Amino acid sequence: MGTPTRPRRQLDLPVSQITPPKMHDSEVELKLQEIMKMNGILNINGQRYQTEMKDLEHLGELGNGTCGHVVKMRHKPSGVVIAVKQMRRSGNAEENKRIIMDLDVVLKSHDCPYIVQCLGCFITESDVWICMELMATCLDKLLKHSRQAIPEDFLGKVTVATVKALSYLKEKHGVIHRDVKPSNILLDETGGVKLCDFGISGRLVDSKAKTRSAGCAAYMAPERIDPPDPTKPDYDIRADVWSLGITLVELATGVFPYRDCKTDFEVLSRVVQDDPPSLPTDAPFSKEFRSFVSCCLTKNYKHRPKYHKLMEHPFIRKYDILQDNDSNSAVTNSGQWFGKVMRQLDPR
């Protein structure tokens, strides 16, 4: 948790005049009351600590996330270094809802190995601190510092973990992420992959999202920008599948598919009007990877697969099996590549 991210502007979509139903203030208050029961309790390495903010030593800045900034801190009683997402509680109701949603999702997802782990939180009248496990980097930073495309074998591992995390959110908690992108996919020191940043995730009602909170325009699905039926601007988990497809194209090629666009509006127009991005035909990608990306970037969301179908795809099945076989050359090569890049990032 808590790596620097490339700034991308958030966009409030002007495509519909419909006012969507929102999480009621009473729901937010109930969630806050539930979370307050755990205020100041940190679970670190299997031990429970009743902690105060003064027990955390500031070590440096890590970056920015939804609603706040992330710092590196040492938990003095245990000596463990953690990431702390610090957010101000304001009079802005939507900002407060984002904070509570982020905290609610990570606290409930402690049993998923593909979601960054929350160690606990602090809530005061003016601030919210979310204490997380410290991760090594994110895919956005990894791509930037490696100065090369990320190998397909490593992306296989990323894809398996991300789809499992998204499927978990949907099946266990009825949540859609809505902001899948390289900066929200984190890596630990061993190359383990975890999803983070749930500030704009949304509740699903009858498997559909009813609100249109802005995510990052660059990764937004066509049906979120231009709903087939403007009077019913619903969408489902397949919007996140599209975002995953855009993410994979960017990571596999080293360049963002809409990199020549100068404004968010231009990006949105191209997402709606152009054919979906694809992997270069002259690049040495496997047919399974090409097929998987093509499935994710199916323009008509009704024909785009959901998570259970993605998990049956040959590309995911291959890498899901390989994760349990450390001696496989693809796993070995992937690990060696990641280790080399991380040594370049931190040569100590």
Task: Output mean pLDDT.
Answer: 83
What's the helix-strand series?
HEEEEEHEEEHHEEEEEHHHHHHH
**Cα-based radius of gyration, to the nearest Å:** 20 Å
For the biggest β-sheet, the strand order reads 3-4-5-7-6
Low-confidence stretches: 3-23, 203-212
Please describe the topology of this protein.
Elements: H1 25-36, E1 41-44, E2 47-50, E3 56-65, E4 68-75, E5 80-88, H2 93-108, E6 118-123, E7 127-132, E8 137-138, H3 139-146, H4 152-173, E9 175-176, E10 185-187, E11 193-195, E12 202-205, E13 208-209, H5 222-225, H6 238-253, H7 264-273, H8 287-296, H9 307-310, H10 314-322, H11 329-345
Antiparallel strand pairs: 1-2, 3-4, 4-5, 5-7, 6-7, 8-10, 9-12, 10-11, 12-13
Helix pairs in contact: 1-2, 4-6, 4-10, 6-8
